[in-house]
Amino acid sequence: MAGAAVFGVTTNTVTTTPPEPPQPAATGTATFHDDTAPDDYRDQAVREDGVTVTGGWLPRDVAEQVTAAAALIWLRRRRDYQPHPTQPDDTDLTPLPPTVTAVQAALADSPTPPPPDENAAPFEALPAGGVGLTGPGTLPVGRGLLVTAILAGQRHSSTSLIVTQATLALLLGPAAETLGRRLPLTIVDTVDEAAQLLQPAGPVTGEAIPGQRQGGTSSRHGHRKIVLLNDHDGNEQQLKHLAETGTAAAALVVVLGEQPDGPNWHAGSTGYLRDPHHPDMPGPRLCILDWTATTDLLTVIASPGPAPAHPDSGRPPLPYAGSPELPLPRQVARHEPTRLSTASRQRLHLRVLGDPQLLIDGEPLTIRRSAGLQVLVYLAIHPSGADTAQLTDAIWPGLPRHSLTGRLYTALSDLRSTIRTASDLPVIDHSDDRYRLNPAHIEVDLWQLHATIHQAAATLAHTATAWQTVLDAYPADLATTRTWPWLDPHREATRRRVIDLCATLAAKEPDPHRFLQLLQDGIHIDPYNADLHGLAGRALIDLGELEAAVELQQQHQQSLLRVGLDSEFSPRVSFTAPDAGR
Questions:
Q1: Distance between CA atoms of 542 and 311, rounded to whole angstroms?
Q2: Whole domain around residue 229: which residue ranges?
């Protein structure tokens, strides 16, 4: 899937995978390696083939497709945002579901693997024609197959999924009705309907549309259909007929339960499959998910539309838009390390726009732990401070808080020690379990940006000068080189404040050429935003540059095409009425 280019580096990695099928055990929370692990251990960890999250396990390829789908969510939000001079709308900046952020964090530090072998896809590991699944892992594996098949269909248009309504309800529970309508799959009521869709003589159709109730089958060479049902969807004769039809159509029929005349494989609780006729032969391990993890993942896979809010996904606090409050009293820790520097007049500067760095007298300070760097950036975004729970939830998504307090304290201790080796200035204040940056001793470029935006928005003249001041204060996106999942809402909100100002100053600009230049600057900051492109296109038309307006629209569509959003693009401003005013 498109959009993967936005991913970068963090410390969290994929979980290690047992070399042999383990004994049945409950799947735990997202597993990461310790920041202090040597590099060779980290390299070994990221070569493993899966990610464990609360409620399940995802093969590496599936996890990567989830992260790509998450990237598309944020790209779609960028495209659809309408800059507003006075009343910005950030109601869509809801964090993604916890299972998704846990997967993102787990893969963020992982090097890009070689392209997967199509023959090694999970469906290729199942018996040709189909299989029945029994055992304690039947439903978790069924949910995993549902997610895997939908992702495969989005990645390769030659794959499509057919599922019975009863099976969808069995796997998704109450969410089946709302999510089913928004998922790219075909829903049927009976096994006979599924068999009809596999008939090669059926009418040729395009891709499966979200939640379609019925339809023909594609006769294109190589198109792979997957049918997912349970053993109560039909009687023995119907299931046999479906299996025969599926075999003739080179489709894969997966029955959650006993399949008449077999083959039937045992599904373990950890996702390993075993053929009873070949008990010594190692079987494949498939994706396993519980109900919550499945609905979390399907929420980002589904087509845009209203989705139930996750209880842990409240509206995030937006980046600070003013000067920090007075510093809280500093709590002096016991056994502070000896300060190796006596430069009491040093000034520290934290740069979070672009590649995050802490500068002391203009020289970057090496921060060993990613968690320590994340703390600095998080506190820069939240000048009023953050408590232990907020920091641990952000830095280590998916892990229980009680297991993370010591890890946070270790990261903070190492961070403070690192800073004190170069400066005697107290940077992080701590009081009543709340941490904050000390504005008396550290400058933050993000704080300066917000102050600059506020001053520029209040200007009544000299828009060019005001805008240039903001451009100088905004060299790059917030922590642009990092892909920590908690950053996404804040990075997007910060970008929006800049293009909001662009709209504000453009609305005040009487010169049409300067008006156009402001919009073009805004497009440079966010090349995906449709509203800015529409306004700039209208400005070009007003100036008699119709060809340039069409070229601008085509460039925008190509940009959207490269990230997988082309089919959803619809310009807000028409390019066909050159006599209309802007």
A1: 48
A2: 125-307
